Fold each of these.
Amino acid sequence: MSRILCMRAPRRLLSQPILATAIRNARRYASSAPQFDWEDPLASKTLLTEDELAISAMAESYCQEELAPRVLQAYRDENYDPQILREMGELGLLGATIKGWGCAGVSTVAGGLITRAVERVDSGYRSGMSVQSSLVMGGIHEFGSEELKDRYLPDMAKGKLLGAFGLTEPNHGSDPGSMEMTAREHPQKKGYYLLSGSKTWITNSPISDVLLVWAKLKETGKIRGFVVDRRDSPAGTLETPAIKNKNGLRASITGMIHLQDCPVPQENMFLEVEGLRGPFSCLNNARYGIALGTMGALEDCIARARTYALERKQFKGNPLAKYQLVQKKLADATTDAAYGTLAAIQVGRLKDEGKATPEMISMIKRQNCDRALQGARTLQEIFGGNAVSDEYGIGRHVANLYVTQTYEGQSDIHSLILGRAITGIQAFV
Amino acid sequence: MSRILCMRAPRRLLSQPILATAIRNARRYASSAPQFDWEDPLASKTLLTEDELAISAMAESYCQEELAPRVLQAYRDENYDPQILREMGELGLLGATIKGWGCAGVSTVAGGLITRAVERVDSGYRSGMSVQSSLVMGGIHEFGSEELKDRYLPDMAKGKLLGAFGLTEPNHGSDPGSMEMTAREHPQKKGYYLLSGSKTWITNSPISDVLLVWAKLKETGKIRGFVVDRRDSPAGTLETPAIKNKNGLRASITGMIHLQDCPVPQENMFLEVEGLRGPFSCLNNARYGIALGTMGALEDCIARARTYALERKQFKGNPLAKYQLVQKKLADATTDAAYGTLAAIQVGRLKDEGKATPEMISMIKRQNCDRALQGARTLQEIFGGNAVSDEYGIGRHVANLYVTQTYEGQSDIHSLILGRAITGIQAFV
Amino acid sequence: MSRILCMRAPRRLLSQPILATAIRNARRYASSAPQFDWEDPLASKTLLTEDELAISAMAESYCQEELAPRVLQAYRDENYDPQILREMGELGLLGATIKGWGCAGVSTVAGGLITRAVERVDSGYRSGMSVQSSLVMGGIHEFGSEELKDRYLPDMAKGKLLGAFGLTEPNHGSDPGSMEMTAREHPQKKGYYLLSGSKTWITNSPISDVLLVWAKLKETGKIRGFVVDRRDSPAGTLETPAIKNKNGLRASITGMIHLQDCPVPQENMFLEVEGLRGPFSCLNNARYGIALGTMGALEDCIARARTYALERKQFKGNPLAKYQLVQKKLADATTDAAYGTLAAIQVGRLKDEGKATPEMISMIKRQNCDRALQGARTLQEIFGGNAVSDEYGIGRHVANLYVTQTYEGQSDIHSLILGRAITGIQAFV
Amino acid sequence: MSRILCMRAPRRLLSQPILATAIRNARRYASSAPQFDWEDPLASKTLLTEDELAISAMAESYCQEELAPRVLQAYRDENYDPQILREMGELGLLGATIKGWGCAGVSTVAGGLITRAVERVDSGYRSGMSVQSSLVMGGIHEFGSEELKDRYLPDMAKGKLLGAFGLTEPNHGSDPGSMEMTAREHPQKKGYYLLSGSKTWITNSPISDVLLVWAKLKETGKIRGFVVDRRDSPAGTLETPAIKNKNGLRASITGMIHLQDCPVPQENMFLEVEGLRGPFSCLNNARYGIALGTMGALEDCIARARTYALERKQFKGNPLAKYQLVQKKLADATTDAAYGTLAAIQVGRLKDEGKATPEMISMIKRQNCDRALQGARTLQEIFGGNAVSDEYGIGRHVANLYVTQTYEGQSDIHSLILGRAITGIQAFV
């Protein structure tokens, strides 16, 4: 664990009793007699390092104390508080797997444990963080020049600069290779490109300072990545209107990116990468975070449904938890959470060892999103009509998890990616 | 078909070209060469009478022209316009299966076709109508004295008086037999009862004039039905606060009913019925409407998904409709809609012949709600990330249909009702 | 109902008490008070004519008395007794929907009720009958010359001549249009064709006398139908080896058809039909029988599982039927049987009115086979380990129903047929 | 890895080229560049030790070379060759996790890899081995006196003595606590008990020498374990008739155990254990083997379906593998196999560290059996009608996996075990 994360976390959190308990619980696992823990049925904690346990405990503590109390209202109002990213930055949670530039440099699994903690509260909050950490910081770190890294990463790590990632276009979702946004050499200003086109469903775009945008270079027809800095964009060349009235992820902010001959200096173009490899590599990192993140949302659904089932009584005063049909729903969801967590930890380890492939990420992204959504829906049934009240939180998770199933590769697209890897034949048609 | 419906419909609607087309299409079925119609795959129209076809066409026309344009905003604002019930009343759509008192006196199937037309737009609009028609007017018609019928039915049929149905209590959802609301004899005012207690999740309660409330008579401990007239209730004895921030059915209004020693005259108590038979009989009628109604919502999802799949192009310009995984989703949902419609028509016919049993209603209510919800969710996947925009309408149906699966008997409860009927053994525990 | 069936049935069956009861039960439905009947939950019997009820009762009686006692041993030994078709012929059950040539001339629904009765015992027995009735007799009746009809239909109706239907080839299952079997003009013998090629998975082929075989005419490349008469085929030109060691349908006999320059007179070729329309029309009739037939198998599974659940006691002597998880399985399967039956009756009526389309048949064939298989598998779980014993019969139905899902259009193929009908785009690739 | 396994394996196997390849492949994983391997999608091999890889390779080699060629005929004939257990004994595969008494003393995971190798060929073969290894040898090792261990374990490890495990009774499957078999003190012969009662569905019983039988001690009413030695049982006191005509596991032998005042010396009773803890502990070990074992069967189904899909061509010569609906089936099953394998490895590690609980075993036994069965059934659809031929092997796996889902705790029972662990409330009723 990086010094930064270590040093900062204690200052903020160690005096708080909840964290102390969390760490104590985490450590207890080394010595205790075997006992089934419905919150971690297959003892995935035994696979984590001390550092990872501590990071997870800190992140959970922050999320439960600071994020959980805000989410109900934020979701109702469809409002995202950019202050959240600054708070996360202060705790070292942003770009946490990057080494250097003020980032924590933790393991891939630790990074996933952070997303799980955030998504336990809300998938929208996790989305906001994933864009900042995996898509934009990750992209700049992987493909940007040293100068770009020095210019953007430190402030992004602190949450002082907010990022957005522009890949999806109105007419091109699952098939980004057909994108229409273009970059052409500036006819007057040497060393500059002019970017034009539209992106949509862009998390954080309305509040972003730094936009990593993918466009086709006119001269080559190849896709290239550009870092568009809002501060340097002349009026009228960059618009980022918000998309409102969403059915899910209402606690995150989403918008479009309209570029109209927006000038971008040549040094803001990624040099080392061309084609879809660039955006796909960024997505790969984000997808990992989603795979472990959605397990947090599912676990929260389990905890809420379990509590409800124990407290709600029907028919002669029996708690719902006594009914076989209810127990089966809990057993199914708990199993999926346990399995999905183990799979994500395994892929995280492989990633750090350079042994992970994109198909592995497709597999865990697809399966964990699918099962989280399915599990949340099944658990929702336990609440009966009461699930309609947003105060139970379950409906929010259900609506959010639908979105996680569709973004960064809709479930069926990942099925076909896997199918291609298994058979050697592509069937995207 | 009643004279009222016949006479009124033409005045309002016959000049409109859409209705003419609808009726022409409906009639065409008698003579045309066989051709697969994805909107009615098993030709359920051949099972309908001329009157039923005309009623259905009129209701569809009204709903598409008058309701559809309002629903997006209503759902966003969580707002229900009581004017809608007045419009429906003018068209003869309220309490339509009742004979007399200004009601249309149509067949059970025709009543279901009306709910289907309304729910094709929105399950919340259908809920508002079902409460008025099936639960309150139906209840008064079945169990009320002639005097009660004369006093309430004509104005309710016109939508001038709005009804609410108070059965579910905060602690008693699936098990209404344990209700806590009481009615006791008025200590001073002879011939009056005092009602006290709370009901929750009551559609229309905040805007209702006439509340059919079920309470336990103190002296017998038996459940009895009371018609509570808001105009006659002294200040402070009846409160109907709205429940806001719902996850679904946001285009209908829902609230609580708080009664605090609310005086109700003896003649407003249903005399002929005691115990759960009363409310269950009302629910039975409403459930029938839900069974056919949800098929409308599912059909709308199919139509929306089909259009989207034909218009949206990915990968070499192919429409999504060309993908096998998309076609299977459409085939599954279409089959469920076709089967569910036939089953509901059959039970409607049996009902009019006095051959329907409550278990039959349980079966079609459960199955049609389950399949509509499942189908809507599967079709939603076709929209990918775009489903998150409320303008596609699909997310609204998904959220609504979850609620229809839980109210008037949550799906699992109906499973156990059927299980009991099949095995002779009750397993509610 | 035809005179033949009417006259014959009584002679054989009316003295038998079981039939009397069956008819009495069938008639009772007209007058009795409404009561839920788990064997016919949505009262599909009310949709049947007196004739149809009587035919159904007779067929059920024969099947339960004569077929049921033989099936366990036949399935074990993988043996089919051709005598069964002769018995069915005597009762007028073969080619029953054909008018004339000694056939009963009953309604499509009545024909389906016969298949349901047979498949309630075993899908293999029903397969043997379907081939005779729908595929071969139906094909000759629809496309054959008057001479062919006169020559074959009367003896086939009596079960004296047995038929087989040769369409599927070793390399061409779902895609018969690519068939390799050829017919070429006899180089010496004028008015004769020589047929060569192989067919596989042909029900009844080893015991068949009359083989309706589809081959491509060399001169046109178009598919044509030929009636191959084993009695007229020189030694060595026609072989029909049995395929043994099947996983399902073991009580039916299956084989190949090898033709090696087998001479067939020109008049045995169907004149009126060319291309796939011929075999597809035959399949259409057979698929209808499967759609209603599989409901019989599913209903038998329900009855067996219900009995087992009531008799088997675990945990404090409670019957399994008391467990919620068991009741839900029963409720699900019962609902599917009820819905599937109604859909099949509706399509049968449309068929007789000339209003049915092949896509309707695809829909009910697909859905009813899928749900029957799914239901049988779920009900099998109620038997626990005991299902492994073949004496409970449930494992046999499960294995059989897998086959019904795959033949005459595998389920996914029908999904794509429906998808094409819904979207107008074919996705067979 | 034990010396015995090490020393013996090479002698037998190292000269064989297949093993060399297997070991080379296994080792390759340490160094190769990351590449998706559909046979091990989440690189579970990276979690195995060198020893475990070698044991797995040896077991796979034996099973593919020696067992695979026999299984088709064995399944057809419903015949189990006891020689197989002797071969396994020679290779050190029996009781492999036991340390001492000539057993290999390998890790729990290694033991599971052996069951996986065997079940890749056939679940029946794995069942025969599980009974010998986990249930009988495991039981004697855990609860027997040193004398009993010395007397039985060495010869059982060599496959010279065959074991059977008698717990399930005709009327008591999921609820063994209600067993009826009794043990009473011998009225004449001191130091002896007389056992009476019947057990059923006992794998290996007809060929067994050593029967571990659970019975209620008359004097206490408590369940105790007895080692019944067929050689010491007087004629007429022990009968073990085979159960024939099974729907699944036909390559294993199953029977009953009838005891009629069968005398058993006191020292053959387990002293240390009383009640259900004894048999449940044995089952726990066996269930672990099933959890990893069924993954082998599923993986074999994947491999067979993939090959078939690549070789079978339909519609314009496209292989089935090109169809989206086929690719999705492969992707789903592959994911389940990968996830299930990781979960089983994790629980194996916990078991060796003393951290596993019975609920963890319930979770992986339930989930892996459920998913293996579901996956096999879905993959079977790829074969269409050809799956009916037993030569494709897929139907055999489907039939076998149904049985694995029901034995050693039917799936629903494990759901309720998990439900109890999650909620603290039992719902067995």
Amino acid sequence: MKNNSIPYKIYLTEDEMPKSWYNVKARMKNKHAPFVNPKTQKPCTKDDLKSVFCDECIEQELNDTDEFIEIPQGIRDFYKMFRPSPLVRAYFLERLLDTPAQIYYKFEGNNTSGSHKLNSAAAQAYYAKKQGLKSITTETGAGQWGTALAMAAAFYGLNLDVYMVKVSAEQKPHRREVIRTYGANVIPSPSDTTNAGRKILAEFPGTGGSLGCAISEAVEKATKTESCRYVLGSVLDHVLLHQTVIGQESKIAMDKYGITPDVIIGCCGGGSNFGGLIAPFMGERLCGKNNIEFIGVEPASCPSLTKGKFAYDYCDSARTTPMAKMYTLGCGFMPSPSHAGGLRYHGMSPIISQLYRDGYIKAITAEQSAVFEAAVMFAKCEGILPAPESSHAIRAAIDTAVECKKTGEKKTVLFGLTGTGYFDMSAYKKYNDGAMSDVIPTDADLQKGFDTIPKCKVNEDIL
Amino acid sequence: MKNNSIPYKIYLTEDEMPKSWYNVKARMKNKHAPFVNPKTQKPCTKDDLKSVFCDECIEQELNDTDEFIEIPQGIRDFYKMFRPSPLVRAYFLERLLDTPAQIYYKFEGNNTSGSHKLNSAAAQAYYAKKQGLKSITTETGAGQWGTALAMAAAFYGLNLDVYMVKVSAEQKPHRREVIRTYGANVIPSPSDTTNAGRKILAEFPGTGGSLGCAISEAVEKATKTESCRYVLGSVLDHVLLHQTVIGQESKIAMDKYGITPDVIIGCCGGGSNFGGLIAPFMGERLCGKNNIEFIGVEPASCPSLTKGKFAYDYCDSARTTPMAKMYTLGCGFMPSPSHAGGLRYHGMSPIISQLYRDGYIKAITAEQSAVFEAAVMFAKCEGILPAPESSHAIRAAIDTAVECKKTGEKKTVLFGLTGTGYFDMSAYKKYNDGAMSDVIPTDADLQKGFDTIPKCKVNEDIL
């Protein structure tokens, strides 16, 4: 039923904000396979991870029994700076589409990082500080994650080195400057501050760098510096856990107004925002309490769920991380350079991968021109200029609403609007100029990627 | 008294949002002097303005009797897209400063234009549509106003030509692209689409343009195109009126929580945001119902209130507009090119000018390195990266709070945080690099500006 008494934006009060994250693993009958240490080919122990990650993050990473994990007061205080985020009823979009569907979106872009990334940056910086560390390191490509972590490091009083892919640092000087303004040290990668960087520089003197190289540098710096750890922005279970504040807030707001979603849609890169959005709803689904359709949308040019292999693979192209059992295109897979819409990660969160494997999640792809068409339509009627990544979810929400118009179904749709596109205007320019082309990897392209999946003991039966 | 039960952010419900703008002129015993037609040297008639501005905006411009002017439902619907804006208690900043003062700010930057400009863009586009017009024109320098108007034009279905200062269009391609994404036509100025533009191009073939030239082009285009009008983003009374939604919301939120401000601070460029913030509080002040200190902060490099003349002057450097009685540095005054902090307007809203003349407003200046120091401090503790313009108000709020620490006074401070600085990172870079210098115009610089104030009949007694 069309319920027009619902406000355009629902903000929870600060008292209503969630006091715990939702650990969906506790409800999964099939837990995902353990991370594997590539050297031993055995499940990772805490000790394998301790030199790289903060202790509390490792605990959370390996916790698959506690359904609710308390958000410490120190993080909840920081969350109040930029949360609650609004749950928006897309009245203007509904009117434009003339659909019987009700469309809601949870908007995570109203903070300086411009995205949901700050939810996990806040938590990880807090735990680093609590552990008594002095500094943290990370890598960043486009810069959203680097900005989020710089904000969190400034708030908690930690030093931060951000290894920024050199070509990004040069092409996005403004992003770089935001990070610097928050007091972090931006090091264009490859750099001469690490062995990994020096090696690459010696081999390829003029290189613009890569995310893989930046990760290697950040990890090396963390492990070789006293009182320092490395921090990652997606894929891992504890990152997804922190992002469940998105789903928790959405669910509290919807419950408050008696709204029950039929479909929940999110864009899928590493999977942490989608996982965070759906987690509490999925928890109920796994107990048979709802029958929600969960849809992950990935770019046609980087289709890890829809065309990937379910295998053990490295989480990074530099092969420095433990191996995770996940849907992957191969850690060496690179989407076509003409792909502008973000979400270029080769793998997928092990939690999302397992839920997809078990049939709880549907995955679809969207081509980039259709994604930007949806983005521009959305910007004009709802006012928010969306990030290209988020616009994959917009595309699917619009398609669902248009389908409802044909069938007359009055579905309630919730999608995650993860961020704003203010720093993605060169991609928009391509679209506005009519110069955007769609790219779908051929079987040969895919095979090249699959060839980079490690051929090792744990993958013996798969490859 | 320190009241810690107040939430970090106060959002009004949609029902609580103001249904009228506040016309402070109705309460002013001394109305400001009328606009004067430079040709006749007589007060402007409605007919003088009709070919340039929308009818309803002219009515509002000349209305100094109705204290409340209803916000039409069609505008209130659009306001719901990006309003209410939050009234934020600056707990983190208070803690950092260790001050007994309570600091609040009204944050207007949570929309794609990144500023308060959208409040008036929405209203002016609505009235243009209601009048049956097909298109509107404007000029833009940095691009915030152009973006806001593009959003409003897209929402109401109007064509929009934005004359963007050529050098800005080239230096800020991303801003330009946001405007294009909203469907507006961006024309780098000077252009060959107007007589004014062609004349300048012929005289100065390689010129990067100026705001004055862009205004001339936009006005010419509007007056020579059927069913088209020109739209302005600051200075005029009706623009200030639309911005009173800021003050109205602030007052409703403060009244709801029993908060009574002792000091209200805003940055001053053209004066519309400051005027909009203070209007309803000033209305009470003018009836003797409060004793609030109102402080306007302007850059030391463009000190129109603190060092200007109270005289009739053109509202634009191209001398195309009517003349207004206001504090002015002369329509030919240009702040030093090393001034990075915005607020480079030569004059001041006639309403603000009159209130200042009558002693209801205090004006102070801030130097740009002190402004950026405050901006970075604020960004780190409150999370929001502020626009350089807004940071003038932050500077004064911090100084007031620090003074309270010395005196022990428990003042309640409200300031306007008009926007975000995402597109101002080159100015931040200058500050981060330690390359920012302060500039104060010398008496000779000021005199050069004063020499450009029109020597005409209405100014005879002044100059």
